Amino acid sequence: MGAGVTSGASDPGRLIGDVARQLGISTRTLRYYEERGLIEAQPRATGNRRYRDADVDRVVRIRELQSMMGFNLDEIAAILAAEDDLARLRAEWQSGQPTGRRDEIVREALAINRRLQDQVHDKLDRLQKFLDELEGNARRYRRVAREIAAERDQ
Amino acid sequence: MGAGVTSGASDPGRLIGDVARQLGISTRTLRYYEERGLIEAQPRATGNRRYRDADVDRVVRIRELQSMMGFNLDEIAAILAAEDDLARLRAEWQSGQPTGRRDEIVREALAINRRLQDQVHDKLDRLQKFLDELEGNARRYRRVAREIAAERDQ
DNA sequence: ACGTATATTTACGTGAACGTCAACGTCAAG
DNA sequence: CTTGACGTTGACGTTCACGTAAATATACGT
Q1: pLDDT score for B1
Q2: What does R_g of chain B's alpha carbons equal in angstroms?
Q3: B21 CB below 7 A from strand D atoms
Q4: Taking CB atoms and an 8 Å cutoff, what residues of chain A touch B117?
Q5: Distance CA B47, CA B96 (A)
Q6: Residue B77: which pLDDT band, with cuts at 50, 70 and 90?
Q7: Nearest-CA residue of chain B relative to A152?
Q8: Any chain B CB within 8 A of the CB of A60?
Q9: For residues A119 and A101, what is the distance between their CA atoms, to the nearest angstrom?
């Protein structure tokens, strides 16, 4: 067999503490995300939350949007919601069901994607400018360092 | 005369509300930054804070470090402090005074600058990867849109 | 000098994103 | 069958970065 997944029934997923340790976050955070509707741990038969790989990936995504883009959880929820809508649409599509509001959903997903790309481009530009500034400062710093060295060796 | 600065005594600087409006932030925020030691409004003779261009620039810098890099005010304070040390060193330098701890100060400023540059590079990389992902998604979205259009025109 | 638009300090309030604690359930190991 | 490590749901606490309000002083045009 392959590595990891012991063959058999469908993967029930991992427990919350396990996932939290792997991601370096608290269990409280994971429950909080669920509270806020950002994730939905699998309909747990046992009473215990189960996280599958897709769920874990989703949390990673949330953390990225938080730390990299500075979005708050509401904004992140909106982004994920649009993507979810589209994923659902694709699923329905493949099962051949006629789907209402298809255009609307796709348009919405594309619109959000475009807005996101714009914001990322913006951030990239500003970061690049900031980096240029930093390099300029570094040059000035090194000049000061040279002046000090020159005086010392006078 | 030039534009803006009415010739005469040294510019006393602008009032807090004026600056706040220009920067699109609240006066509370400006006072809070002072409370936290991030800025020092000019030793106001009158009792009212006065902001000169350098002060305003500094606030802009703070806002950049906040929104672009996601630093908190403590981290920003540390960064600005190191830069201030170095600026002071340069000032002392030009007035020919012997300065103790010069190497230390310069080394510290360079170290902070390097750390900052590393973090910016890191952020740039991760943002670029994120952008690539987004573009990938967009391609998938457009494909769905084409499928819908094809079905409509069937 | 006067009005009023802004400023000052002091201090308590707020929203976001969790932290922490209590009381309780559950499950594999010994 | 207990023990202990994990989970569960409330519910209240905490930190950060400000918001807001009250009482008072200052700035500036006429």
Answers
A1: 37
A2: 24
A3: no
A4: 131, 134-135, 138
A5: 34
A6: very high
A7: B103
A8: no
A9: 27
